[in-house]
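Input/output pair, single chain:
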Amino acid sequence: MIITVKSFNENEDGGADCDIEMDSDAKRYLIEQGFISMLNTALDKNPAWWTEEDEKRMDIVGQNGNVGYE
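Output:
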């Protein structure tokens, strides 16, 4: 997994702009982590819909490598 920061510029408002390059493994990892974060946020807001089967699926996220991904 390769993530390279090509440029980084701080803004006066405290934010920053950056350009990055990444390989497909890095893209997949970041998308996966974002999806997990989104699910965790949803659970914090309304855990009533979360089942034990959903919990088991979360335990295997990412364990199959790049199978089914390009």
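Residues 23-64 form one domain. The longest helix spans residues 24-45.
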